[in-house]
Amino acid sequence: MSKVRVGIAGASGYTGGELLRLLLSHPEVEVAQVSSERLAGQFVQRAHPHLRKRSNLAFSALSEFQAVDVLFCCLPHGESVKQIERLEVLAPKIIDLSADFRLRDPAGYKRWYGYDHALPQRLGDFVYGIPELHREEMKGASRVSSAGCNATATILGLYPLAKFGIIGSQPIIVDIKAGSSEGGRVASDGSHHPERSHSVRSFSPTGHRHTAEVLQELKLSENSVHLSLTALDMVRGVLATASIFPSRPVSEKELWQMYREAYGNEPFIRIVKDRQGNYRYPEPKLLWGTNYCDVGFEVDPASGRIVTISAIDNLMKGAAGQAVQAMNLMLGYEESTALDFSGLHPI
Predict the structure, then answer these.
(1) d(CA 179, CA 267)
(2) Which of 73, 74, 149, 293 is the catalytic position?
(3) Secondary element (H or E) of residue 257
(4) What share of the chain is helix, strand, coil (3-state, %, to 5)?
(5) From 31-35, 233-237, 309-313, the region with the lowest mean pLDDT
(6) Mean pLDDT across the stretch 1-29?
(7) CATH for the stretch 149-312
(8) What's the CATH number for 4-146+319-331?
């Protein structure tokens, strides 16, 4: 049988490189085209040196693309919505990794992004891209909008509590530690090595845009979740630590039951809660290069507060890996195809 032809628009960034790494090992697909306006005509190893001898593909301009079966869009935020009609001519199935189609309510774009959405009538065409929440919708879907990395970590950490209705009326506070690759490939003053090295820098203590996705997917009311983000001196990884005051007292045994029922059959969710050892709670370092989300929890017996801890690789479960997982579902392949890397230790 012929392989599915795949294209990647905006493939020179970090997420594009991760998509290439995964798709070059996917037994059912052929990476047919990759675009980069800046590097058009140059081989992919120019941007992704780890792919030497893995591919002889060269970047082309997006205007030179021919039709493919599946198109991954890694364009800057705001570009997919501008070019959606043109992109839809190129492929019957599109997975967009920008924020352009993540929110169902167009008012959310004005509230969280500061602009009116250009095509509000198209927002309902895209399935929100967390398979653990929208697996059945993805099967056979033609449009998926991949979730934000901080939103993914937060949602997956809190989802069992929302599913079983024990989130109380008090606001949820989520402290997120993030690696530098969240900022993308384009350098800035803040990413300059002398400024970033050894830093623990609060860069979005309030009002982070991914809050909108958390509210939407967990079906929570405005101002019920508050994200605070801190940049750490690491390249990959997100660690989301949330504090929740439940609607009723909850024992640790009950939490185990909730998380096992929610995630017991999930191929990429691991419950990490041991009694001893360095890695008794989720640790982003162990997830580098993997599509896993590790989740853990703790109950404070004095206050009844529940603390959830969730970790991902922001470029994988927070971007490229989750997008490939969605593609597998859309095309009817085994969900974990090309995503079986287990990580490294020590690292």
Answers:
(1) 25
(2) 149
(3) helix 252-263
(4) 30, 20, 45
(5) 233-237
(6) 96
(7) 3.30.360.10
(8) 3.40.50.720
